[in-house]
């Protein structure tokens, strides 16, 4: 309860006299159509989070303790890409990626440093981790055991949604079937061993980041939850009498975009559809178990590099969409910082976003009222429309055999929806202030000069590798070998993976060793790119004009202009690369794009085999300097030093200058939103490189 001083304080103990109304609308769940107060003592606020982690476990721990001291009420851990994909810091694919987009957690020693001086029994810890979610939870539980904490008191969430990784985020490792088995093992184990833990956070956030429409976000997330619950049911580890409890522990992580009314209605639709699925498909009747429990990070796709100060308003509007409607209010909220379109936010930037939440919760009267949208025919109508469209999309997925069998279909649909969104921005039918409308601006004083964004010391990676070597040297390797053997045996036999994973953590097994053991049993997977569809320009004048140029240059080259597009390293954010690949094909180029997670050597080999006229790299993890340098070296080894290289990503101006000095022909950043224009520019790069001296 808040403390109040002075005569300006409002009455908090209940509704003022006479503040009753007669309600004839649906109202909040569990409330009858009778007179009831419209104002009451404030509800408890949602959990305040910021998504954070970088460099090292020790530095991230300092950041967490600082954020908690500022009033943050839950942790949301960002792991680096090697950790997210179950590689150690010394793996070839980890080069340049260690500590860049999150904290490296290589072993139990890192986990202990990460939570130093933080009371595990009192924390609410969210882990944005998917393919190795079982491993991260195993280390967390192992740490609690070693510190003498009660497992039953641990509270938090592992994201653990592998379907959306195949569709949008890209940090998958194993094929769908064993991946779903790992999730089912966690769900089945958690409800008895760590009953306050959410073993899965069905994540529609990245679906919207990949271009999903509201009905796609609703349907694909719900289809994923259904696939997991069906897998748990079929696994036989949970008695039928306990299934309602398991259903009640499934949580969601949702996106909220800037189209306020639609996003608010989407959340109300989620609430209704989840209850509908629980009652009708699984026979769940407990009202508490049927609650749609969700956390949010609001939309990052819509954050702009031009006029980034405008992002503050976007973030606020998006936060309102998931807090104003009481019956569809989030349980936890994390907000991006205003400058995340340019790089990692500084502690002050994160504090600014945290203060937004605190002002909303503690200074306004939002939490004192019943749902302010109940009875609105506009809100009800839009909510019903979204539910109808989502049910139709769910039926399509069911007809394909469920979410895991519909991955290719869903991926292609997402890429298509994103193509539509990008074209709408390009042609101006979708307005983005500061990007395609009202572009003139005063210079911003908010983020200028050195230190305007958080950076990671490039020497940290070498330090992490040395730490890894020291850890391996001091542990009992025989104990590790035995633990890994038991882990693989459990994976092969179908036994639950959690306790053997906890044993591995306590023995000193590393993240990469756990990942290697699982890869040896389950194999690896490469998800569909979604860009294999036949694309038509629809008569777009700009596209048709670039097509003419592609044809002209191709004729002069003697064969079709060939563009090899690669994503080196572990960056799984493939949305931009997919749009470039799709548009390149639309303007008539021969585009070779095999997906994510290739080494620079593999990309150079692809270019040599395809006889590329131009190579493009898409890098959004902040590792562009290392990966471009290595790609250029590999191109020289293949005799491709004369092939022009273009690079796209979130690249600060000073890094852009360094890339040009390396020989990069063009650099594209988020401000270059007109993809057709980029394609026309690439044609000029090819013509200059191959035909200017011919």
From TrEMBL:
Keywords: Cobalamin, Cobalt, Isomerase, Metal-binding. InterPro entries: Acid_CoA_mut_C, Cbl-dep_enz_cat, Cobalamin-bd, Cobalamin-bd_sf, MeMalonylCoA_mutase_a/b_cat, MMCoA_mutase_a_cat. The keyword rRNA-binding does not apply. The keyword Glycoprotein does not apply. Residues 15-38 are annotated as: Disordered. Residues 560-689 form the B12-binding domain. SUPFAM superfamilies: Cobalamin (vitamin B12)-binding domain, Cobalamin (vitamin B12)-dependent enzymes. Its cofactor is adenosylcob(III)alamin. It holds the Pfam family B12-binding. One of its GO terms (molecular function) is metal ion binding. CDD domains: MM_CoA_mut_B12_BD. PROSITE patterns: B12_BINDING (PS51332). It comes from the Bacteria. Belongs to the methylmalonyl-CoA mutase family. This is Methylmalonyl-CoA mutase large subunit. It comes from Hyphomonas oceanitis SCH89. The lineage of its organism: Bacteria, Pseudomonadati, Pseudomonadota, Alphaproteobacteria, Hyphomonadales.
């Amino acid at each position: 309860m808040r403390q109040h001083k002075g005569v300006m304080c409002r009455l908090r103990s209940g509704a003022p006299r006479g503040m009753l109304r007669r309600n004839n609308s649906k109202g909040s769940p569990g409330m009858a159509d009778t007179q009831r107060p419209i104002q009451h003592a404030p509800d408890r606020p949602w959990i305040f989070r910021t998504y954070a982690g970088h460099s090292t476990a020790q530095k991230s721990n300092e950041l967490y303790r600082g954020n908690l001291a500022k009033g943050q009420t839950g942790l949301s851990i960002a792991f680096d890409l090697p950790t997210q994909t179950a590689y150690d810091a010394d793996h070839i694919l980890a080069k340049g990626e260690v500590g860049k987009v999150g904290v490296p957690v290589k072993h139990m020693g890192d986990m202990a440093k990460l939570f130093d001086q933080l009371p595990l029994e009192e924390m609410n810890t969210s882990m944005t981790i998917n393919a190795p979610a079982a491993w991260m939870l195993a280390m967390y539980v192992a740490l609690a055991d070693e510190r003498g904490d009660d497992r039953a008191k641990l509270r938090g969430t592992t994201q653990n949604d592998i379907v959306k990784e195949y569709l949008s985020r890209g940090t998958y490792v194993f094929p769908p079937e064993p991946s779903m088995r790992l999730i089912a093992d966690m769900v089945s184990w958690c409800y008895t061993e760590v009953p306050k833990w959410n073993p899965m956070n069905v994540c529609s956030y990245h679906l919207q980041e990949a271009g999903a429409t509201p009905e796609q976000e609703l349907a694909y997330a719900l289809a994923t939850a259904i696939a997991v619950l069906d897998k748990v049911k079929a696994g036989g580890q949970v008695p039928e009498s306990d299934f309602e409890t398991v259903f009640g522990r499934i949580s969601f992580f949702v996106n909220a975009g800037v189209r306020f009314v639609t996003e608010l209605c989407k959340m109300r639709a989620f609430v209704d559809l989840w209850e509908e699925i629980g009652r009708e498909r699984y026979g769940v009747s407990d009202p508490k178990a049927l609650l749609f429990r969700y956390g949010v990070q609001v939309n990052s796709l819509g954050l702009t590099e031009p006029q980034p100060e405008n992002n503050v308003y976007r973030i606020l509007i998006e936060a309102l969409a998931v807090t104003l409607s009481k019956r569809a209010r989030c349980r936890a909220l994390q907000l991006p910082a205003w400058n995340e379109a340019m790089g990692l936010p500084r502690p002050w930037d994160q504090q600014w976003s945290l203060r937004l939440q605190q002002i909303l919760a503690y200074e306004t009267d939002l939490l004192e009222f019943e749902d302010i949208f109940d009875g609105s025919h506009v809100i009800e109508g839009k909510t019903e429309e979204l539910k109808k469209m989502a049910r139709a999309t769910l039926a399509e997925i069911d007809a394909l055999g469920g979410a895991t069998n519909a991955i290719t279909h869903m991926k292609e649909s997402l890429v298509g929806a994103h193509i539509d969104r990008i074209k709408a921005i390009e042609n101006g039918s979708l307005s983005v202030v500061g990007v395609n409308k009202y572009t003139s601006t005063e210079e911003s004083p908010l983020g200028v000069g050195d230190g305007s964004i958080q950076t990671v010391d490039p020497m940290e990676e070498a330090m992490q590798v040395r730490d890894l070597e020291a850890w391996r040297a001091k542990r009992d390797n025989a104990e590790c070998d035995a633990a890994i053997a038991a882990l693989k045996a459990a994976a092969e036999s179908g036994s639950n993976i959690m306790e053997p994973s906890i044993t591995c953590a306590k023995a000193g097994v590393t993240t990469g060793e756990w990942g290697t053991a699982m890869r040896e049993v389950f194999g690896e997977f490469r998800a569909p790119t979604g860009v294999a569809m036949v694309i038509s320009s629809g008569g777009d004048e700009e596209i048709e004009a670039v097509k003419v140029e592609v044809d002209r240059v191709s004729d002069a080259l003697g064969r079709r202009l060939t563009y090899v597009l690669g994503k080196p390293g572990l960056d799984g954010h493939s949305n931009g690369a997919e749009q470039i690949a799709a548009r390149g094909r639309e303007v008539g180029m021969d585009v070779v794009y095999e997906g994510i997670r290739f080494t620079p050597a593999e990309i150079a080999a692809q270019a040599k085999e395809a006889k590329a006229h131009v190579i493009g790299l898409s890098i959004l993890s902040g590792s562009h300097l290392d990966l471009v340098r290595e790609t250029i070296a590999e191109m020289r080894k293949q005799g491709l030093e004369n092939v022009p290289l273009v690079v796209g990503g979130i690249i600060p101006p000073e890094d852009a200058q360094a890339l040009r000095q390396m020989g990069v022909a063009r650099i594209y950043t988020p401000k270059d939103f007109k993809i057709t224009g980029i394609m026309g520019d690439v044609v000029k790069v090819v013509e200059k490189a191959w035909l200017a001296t011919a």
